[in-house]
Design brief:
The complex is a heterodimer. In chain A, about 45% of the residues are buried. Chain A is mainly α. In chain B, helix 2 packs across helix 3 and helix 8 crosses helix 9. In chain B, strands 2-1-3-4 form a four-stranded parallel beta sheet, with helices on both faces. A four-stranded parallel beta sheet of chain B has the order 6-5-7-8, with helices on both faces. Chain B folds into two domains: about 120 residues, Glutathione S-transferase Yfyf (Class Pi), Chain A, domain 2 (Up-down Bundle), CATH 1.20.1050.140; about 140 residues, Rossmann fold (3-Layer(aba) Sandwich), CATH 3.40.50. Chain B starts with 6 loop residues before the first strand and ends with a helix. Classes of the chains: A mainly alpha, B alpha/beta. At the A-B interface, helix 2, helix 7, helix 8 and helix 10 of A face helix 8 and helix 9 of B. The complex binds iron/sulfur cluster (2 copies).
Chain lengths: ~140, ~290
């Protein structure tokens, strides 16, 4: 596959902002794959954690933003816990989620949530869900 | 024991223990009294926010837990809690406030308090291990859980990240199993005991929750567990809800219910009927009740 690398993409303001918000240095990742190996939801991510790190290193922010990955991250921190370089994909995805919510619509609507869920689910699930999916 | 002699520890219940997980709260309070401490609920508290902001730039997300912490500090130097998520959020927020002068200033400005991070945030399990001692707990057991193969489910929030939470080794913890042993049960270590249950995706992605929680149950049952104990209402909910999906469903209870049971409390006070899986057949089979 041919990849076009340009300085403009690799050092884009968008990727810089992800680094600033997340506190992560994306260049530290050396693609060992531990994060994807430990991630409980990588099976369902359109772009799994290891590849997210590589794509962001290459400046391919828009593709990562369009993928479902950041909405699936449960914040379990297995990626961070097992990363030999101390990277937190969880923080990167949270930063991207924050940005996405600031830029566009909420991910869930309260009125769409089923009543049995609201009645039975622990409050913490609802509060946490709102913090992850609503701006 | 005279109530005056009891060690009093300020306690933060959190929203869920006040509503859908009352049995977690009450069994913990009763058990505490039986092993020598009293959980003194904070006079005033609010929701902790139920999620620690993973992006360090998000200080707004620290205000709710910081408010809890600053209030608690006025009531003592230790704060205990039961829900793994509350514990994780409070303990991590406390570290941020303690370690970063800059962030401390901003957060204190938001909540109009002068909190310095000097509180010691302990999970109830840590109180049992470090303040009471598992030996003492063992000595107080009146109804040993003999012959019960129990899997301790840690999940994520009790253990990670290690440097901030640090209740035990993040990859190979034993605190939960040590407690079960003290209660007379046979702890079963199973591979998925530190894996995620699906967490807040309970809200909008049932497929993930069913798969992950189902895998936890299968993993425990596969190692011979007849019972799973939890320390988080969301883990409890997700596991109970997904139990049908597991090939070999086992009952799921809060660890404090197991504790109260072993300490000889009246069965009716343990709130087993509030769980959606029935543990009674197992207890009868083992001759415990
Ligand atoms: S575990 Fe760390 S170094 Fe390895 S691929 Fe993931 S982010 Fe990169
Ligand atoms: S925190 Fe998110 S990205 Fe990391 S392992 Fe857990 S689900 Fe995967």
């Amino acid at each position: 596959m041919k990849i076009n690398l340009s300085n403009q993409d690799v050092q884009s303001a968008g990727v810089g902002k992800v680094e600033r918000l997340s506190g992560e240095d994306l260049k530290k990742c050396y693609q060992c794959g531990n994060c994807s190996g430990g991630c409980p939801v990588s099976y369902k991510m359109e772009i799994p954690p290891t590849r997210i790190m590589r794509m962001l290193q290459l400046g391919r922010l828009e593709e990562v933003k369009a993928a479902n990955s950041m909405w699936l991250c449960v914040g379990c921190l297995q990626c961070y816990s097992r990363c030999p370089k101390g990277c937190s994909v969880a923080a990167v995805l949270e930063a991207m989620r924050q940005e996405a919510l600031r830029e566009s619509a909420d991910r869930v609507e309260v009125k769409d949530l089923p009543m049995p869920l609201l009645k039975k689910a622990p409050q913490q699930a609802i509060v946490c869900g709102f913090r992850k999916f609503v701006s | 024991m005279n109530k005056m002699d009891l060690m009093k520890i300020p306690y933060y219940p959190g929203c869920t223990l006040n509503t859908v997980a009352k049995q977690f709260d009450s069994s913990a309070r009763d058990s505490a009294l039986a092993v020598g401490f009293e959980m003194a609920e904070l006079k005033q508290w609010n929701c902790c926010g139920a999620t620690f902001p993973l992006a360090p730039d998000n200080l707004m997300g620290l205000t709710a837990p910081a408010k809890v912490l600053s209030g608690a500090r006025k009531e003592g130097d230790t704060l205990t809690t039961l829900c793994s998520v509350c514990y994780n959020v409070l303990k991590r927020t406390n570290s941020v406030i303690r370690e970063s002068k800059e962030k401390r200033g901003v957060v204190n400005g938001f909540i109009e308090e002068e909190y310095d991070g000097s509180l010691n945030v302990l999970h109830y399990l840590e109180v049992l291990r470090d303040r009471v001692g598992f030996e003492k707990v063992k000595g107080a057991v009146k109804r040993p859980l003999k012959g019960v193969k129990a899997g301790a489910y840690y999940g994520c929030m009790l253990l990670r990240p290690f440097e901030d939470v640090g209740i035990d080794n993040a990859e190979r913890p034993t605190i939960f199993e040590d407690l079960l042993k003290a209660l007379g049960a046979e702890p079963v270590e199973f591979p998925n005991r530190i894996e995620c249950c699906g967490a807040h995706l309970a809200m909008n992605d049932e497929e993930v929750v069913t798969r992950l929680s189902g895998a936890v149950i299968d993993s425990a049952a596969g190692m011979g567990a007849e019972l799973i104990v939890t320390s988080c209402p969301l883990c409890q909910y997700n596991l109970e809800k997904s139990r049908g999906a597991a090939s070999n469903g086992v009952p799921v209870i809060y660890f404090t219910q197991a504790l109260g049971l072993a300490l000889g409390q009246e069965i009716e006070t343990l709130g087993f009927e509030k769980n959606s899986t029935d543990v009674m057949p197992l207890l009868k089979k083992k001759g415990i009740v």
